[in-house]
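tl;dr need the bound structure. longer version: we got a ligand (hexanoyl-coenzyme A) that a collaborator sent over and nobodys looked at where it sits. i said id run it. heres the input, straight from their email, havent touched it
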Amino acid sequence: MDAAQIMFKPGLMKGERILVTGGGTGLGREMAEAFMMLGADVHICGRRGEVLSETAAALMAAHPGGGKVHAHPCDIRVPDAINDMVDAIWAHGPLTGLVNNAAGNFISRTEDLSTRAFDAIASIVFHGSFYTTLNVGKRWIAEGSGGSILSILTTWVWNGSAFTVPSAMSKAGLNAMTQSLAVEWARHGIRANAIAPGPFPTEGMSKRLNPDGTGGGPMRDQSGGNPMGRVGEMHELCNLAVLLMGPGAAYINGQCIAIDGAAYQAGGGNFSALTAWTDEQWTQAAAAIRAQNEKDRAKRTV
Ligand code: HXC
Ligand code: NAP
């Protein structure tokens, strides 16, 4: 990312120590880069060890004057694994921020889901994000240090999303967590906010939510369905993340802020358009998604 696209002064985030779950790829990687460019030390976690180490090395090479990036292979579905990771981080000092960004998702007719398929998504998004928040939050409360939580949601937290029901349910739960903890933990100096991005194309998302490349759902916005005629640019998301996680805007608490070019207001920002898909299209989509899942699973080290 070009430093000129970030609207904050160099060094703004010096002294911050932020854990970005799922920080090895996609939006998590971009936000990690913005934080470290501005001086924060950043911890990234995910299940593919090599992806994490490559990201950490690439970001530090690109920004030699920035903060350090530490890679932690960790599956956030496993509470003990989270505890071990957070112990290892805390051994060098407390975190000041947590970004709940890791997620799993794919489009499917709900009647085609097994209970295991539901759990595959809910265990990452709903359970994993809560487990991580609880582990870090308890330490902040015990130490009286406070901290900032940012969860990456979607605009479906307000209107649901046909064909991504486990994700919509889980993200809506995290929106409730954000609003609840903002109140409950404010007295401990802990803030909780969220961002609801519209389409910001990433490999992880595009391969599972737009597997045939025709642009169903929010991805149709690439061909002009978005009121602004385009998808999001990563630096735009990063500027919002820095605003929420950095010093200077500490009175923002309990909010979920959309960054989607008004896609939500225009068409709901979700996958309702896929009601037009045929059985054949769903069969092809499921095959393509499963192939991507298999490819990614082969790289997992935890
Ligand atoms: C129906 C499916 C399916 C499909 C998988 N399953 N794909 N069912 N249709 N297309 C079923 C499997 O058959 C299995 O059930 C169960 O789901 C678990 O599948 P696994 O592949 O074994 O799961 P696992 O290896 O744990 O992988 C988890 C995952 C995977 C969620 C399925 O996609 C993943 O790891 N994703 C991480 C990255 C990611 O998804 N990024 C995108 C985030 S984008 P059975 O019963 O057969 O055993 C995002 C964007 C939102 O959230 C906003 C956009 C605007
Ligand atoms: P992505 O690149 O696939 O990111 C998901 C990340 O989560 C991956 O790095 C993945 O790494 C990690 N992850 C998944 N399961 C994990 C687990 N059990 N433990 C630890 N890490 C895990 O997709 P993305 O598009 O950047 O999505 C990032 C976030 O933005 C998600 O919360 C998504 O819902 C949200 N979002 C994205 C968009 C968009 O347009 N891209 C729009 C709205 C919201 P491993 O597989 O290696 O574990």
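gonna send this back to them w/ a short note. The chain has a mean pLDDT of 96.
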